Amino acid sequence: MIFLKRKRMSWVCMPFLLSSIFVHAQAVSDQSNFTINQVWAMADSNNKKILMQGLNVQAADAHVKVSKAERLPEVAAEGIYAHVLPLPIYENGLFHTPGQFPVAPTYYKASADAYFNIYNGGKTNTEVNASKVESELSRIQVGQSKQEIHYVAAVYFYDVFRNISYRGLLEQDIRDREKQLAEINQLYKNGTILKSDVLRAELRLSKQRMLLTEIENSIKIAKQKLNILIGRTDDAPLNPQILDQETDAIALKQVNEYFNDAKTSSYKIQISEKEQALTKLKLENVKSNVMPSLGFFGEYAFAYPQIQFYPYALSLYSTGMFGLKLKIPISSWYTNQHKVKEAELKVKQQEVEDEDVKDHIRQEVQENYIRYKESVQRITLAEENIKQATESYRIVQNTYFNQLSLLTDLLDAETQLLQSKFELTTAKVNAKIQYYQLQKAVGNL
């Protein structure tokens, strides 16, 4: 009775176990399917270049704290313990036996001193501001690195997709050619065609199989590149998931709108502006070299024996002082002029470089805008070429098997049809990559 009850319960639980196993298996299989957004997310988390840039941001933030810590007072402690050698006195000259003056054989001193900067020409504030700009610059560089990695990942991603598409087209073509070869062999057996036609058909089929091997190798290479880029193992399974509408043409804005977007979003322009700000802060720092520095200082010490002031004494003593310390860098009044001139030239150089970067970005946006429109036209042309090549192949195939055309005409028609299908896939992929390149130039990838 108990056995029957347990058996009944096992049958009741079986569907749940099977469903959980199926869900787990489906989850495992889904780990190999990636969209472009999932690939980018994995690259942001695992790419080593981005991780290094993240560490650079942390170092820049730490440097800001270091610069701010310069405002704190400097405090130091010092201790000395020494054995004092006897003091010889050469009363009759260096070459005669000296007399010995009695000295205390032991000397020790414990002291502490502090210095608090009140004014140093604004150098500390300038250093703090410069470190903040460097921290902002490091964050912009992280964004730029992510954008560069996104673009490279998209290239590898669509390279895998393109070659997989090639493989599907070529496998279908090989199946068709194998059927066709069987028909040609039948014609040869019937004495309708020559042996040379059979050999040509076999030669073309062997070339197609070799091309399939090359495509398989290209898929493996592209997958490895993408896996390494997003932090996965080299041979991890990866299948690009791309919807049909993702490769459709995208309606673009006016080119002037992309120019305006690039002025505020382009990472290259943002980096150039931050570098310009750094050169200006460096100029301020150099100009402050001629300014005096003023600070509060204090020191206190215990020492034995007392040999600092007369009369000396073999006793422990203490001494201390505090006050204001003023330092005027007089030599900087005539040596700092060339440093200021150099820093001013650096600022002008950076201004010119900033304008050059903006010109380059404007040219890059214009070029990618035009190239994308051109790539969309290539898609339309490739679709039209497929229609024409399909019709041409149909006509030549019918005429060949009716003994009205040569095998070379049929092979050319087949090659043209397959090439047209390849060109359509290439045109769609190139258009997508070109669009990403436009977005990268603007700073929105």
Descriptive overview:
The protein has 445 residues and is an alpha+beta fold. It has a domain at 34-70 and 144-292 and 342-442: Outer membrane efflux proteins (OEP) (Up-down Bundle), CATH 1.20.1600.10. It is 68% helix and 13% strand. It contains nine helices and eight strands. The strands form three sheets. The protein has a four-stranded antiparallel β-sheet, with no helix packed on it. Helix 3 (48-69) runs antiparallel to helix 4 (123-189). It starts with a helix and ends with a helix. Residues 1-30 have low confidence and may be disordered. GO terms for molecular function: efflux transmembrane transporter activity; porin activity. Keywords: Cell outer membrane, Coiled coil, Membrane, Signal, Transmembrane, Transmembrane beta strand, Transport. Its main location: membrane.
Mean pLDDT across all amino acids: 85
- CATH domain class name of one domain: Mainly Alpha
Could you please say which CATH topology of one domain applies here?
Answer: Outer membrane efflux proteins (OEP)
Counted beta strands: 8
Percent helix among the residues? 55-70%
Query: What is the topology, as strand order, of the major beta sheet?
Result: 2-5-7-8
Q: What is the fourth-level CATH superfamily of one domain?
A: Outer membrane efflux proteins (OEP)
Which overall shape is indicated by the principal axes computed on the Cα atoms? elongated
Q: Which spans have pLDDT < 50 for at least 5 consecutive residues?
A: 1-30
Number of helices: 9
Relative strand content: 5-15%
Rounded Rg: 40 Å
Keywords: Cell outer membrane, Coiled coil, Membrane, Signal, Transmembrane, Transmembrane beta strand, Transport
GO molecular function: efflux transmembrane transporter activity; porin activity
Protein name: TolC family protein
Main location: membrane
